[in-house]
Amino acid sequence: IAAHLLNLPTELLEYILCFPVLKHVDICNVSCCCKRLHDVCHGRGKVWGHQYKLRWPRLQRFYRQNECCDWLREYKTRHRVGIQIHSTVESISKRFFTEVVLGDSFAEIESLGMPEHFCEDELLFILSSDKRKSLTLKYYAKKILYFLRQQNILRSLKTFLEQPAEQQSSLEGAVLVDQYCNPLADVTVDSISAQLDEIAEKVKKMLRIKNASHPSLRITQGDRFVVEDFELQRQVLWALNSVLYEQLQYKGNEFDYYNPLNSYIHQVLLRHTGIPISLSVLYMTLAQKLGVQLEPVNFPNHFLLRWCQKPRGSEDIYDFVYIDAFGKGKQLTAKECEYLIGHQVTADYYSAINTTEVLLRMVGNLEGNEKSYQLLRDSLDLYLTINPDNVQYLLLQARLYFHLGIWPEKVLDILQHIQALDPSQHGAVGYLVQHTLEHIQHKKHPAAPEVKMRSVSEHREVKYSVGLIMKHKRSGYNCVIYGWDPKCTMSQEWITTMRVHQLSNGASQPFYNVLVQDGTCRYAAQENLEPHSAPLEIGHQEVGRYFSEFADTHYVANEELQTRYPEDMDKTLDTVQELYHRLTPGCITHNPKTL
């Protein structure tokens, strides 16, 4: 049989060896049988190409169709990267468990010198594995992926800013801002442009009703045609307003103005809702696609567009019509713009601005959107990439990192840069340098984590344990316990504000750190909590930091959390078993994982 097999044509042998049931180990074994099969399974051949594509289908977009490649070498490299990434993620989870906010913890991934697309593919593979298992591995894999993508986007933004101003597109810049703040979302310039092209086609249909011979109807994608006649331009803007605000119901978000989603272009397109600057970028891009040139205006408190009414351009503010994209495309005179904000402004505020200034305004809107350290970090990173020598923002970034206790070496670099730019800041810089150096010394000799034993007498009142899924008796929220104290450890101010004294057992009862279903972290009194009668997964982004898996009735503490609460897992299982028997009397099972 073997002899007959070896006499088969190479194409047929390749076909047989590409059967899906055969894995890379099988191909290695086959290739060792004889020279004939070794030659059929050569590195650049069809067999190893099939194995590579079968195991890592997401990577196919990095290769041209029918590309001649050493697939065996690619397979070995990708396999080796997978092992390295797993090892690095596992080590990070142990080393950085105590960090509240991670700083440069993932920079070492970049220093490994591995192909970037292989690293990302392995991280995505980890994230797509069994939903309830390996939660800690996924938690850190997600953070590493977030970090790597942000570094890529920053490099893309720097390249974008190096282009001549006339080649910079406000839409592309806005997409880069969106991508940096949402690095795990599938947002690309091509996908956003495709959605705008669809809207532009709808506008053309509306325009055809108004003027069947309008020159904008002949514009194809990529054309840089400009409509010169003002009446024809007016028809385009009429059709654009009809489609955008009447047909598609785009609107300004007056009720939740500072929600960051209003600033992200992909969310504006998804929700048909935005703020003046994000809607203006869309409006200006659509008008340009249809041959009408509009310019961005950095008007105070309300971003606008301007439309020149003179054939050869002008700098007289009264030669422009101003468009309020937030106000359904309403066209305003210069005087009416002042009524919009309730006070007079100088002529400078009516000037057109470049793309860099548009992005600075957009990033500035993100800073105060919500009480989120991550969003503040992202907005500062973006602002200082665009304007790297702004002392005020550099000082804010240094203070933020110092406050969070992260990236002390970078804090020192920032402070050195500030001192070089503005020596008058030596007081603030000196204070931060001193305390940052103390922080670096402290990190070299970290304190041992506190271990809480349930068997200790002062802990005897603690009824519940880490991993239990609870329900708050008063507020009704679902949560999981990730820590506890025998008594309330919060400040007197917090105790008074939260009216702890009104509880029957006051502050002297056990309190629990809980991750809540709504994404918040809370500190709850024992008398307000009860085990959930129908345990469910808690959709909180920090679950993986403390737990390795969801076991149907409870969460299993990861190695790091078990080190801090070594006796809690047995208590968790006992509580789950007790609850199960109470709800299902007569059942004899003793394995809560089977519930």
UniProtKB/TrEMBL annotation:
SMART domains: YccV-like. SUPFAM superfamilies: F-box domain, YccV-like. Coiled coil: none annotated. This is Hemimethylated DNA-binding domain-containing protein. Gene3D superfamilies: 1.20.1280.50, Hemimethylated DNA-binding domain. The lineage of its organism: Eukaryota, Metazoa, Chordata, Craniata, Vertebrata. One of its GO terms (molecular function) is DNA binding. InterPro entries: F-box-like_dom_sf, F-box_dom, Hemimethylated_DNA-bd_dom, Hemimethylated_DNA-bd_sf, SirB1_N. Residues 461-558 form the Hemimethylated DNA-binding domain. It comes from Anabas testudineus. It comes from the Eukaryota.
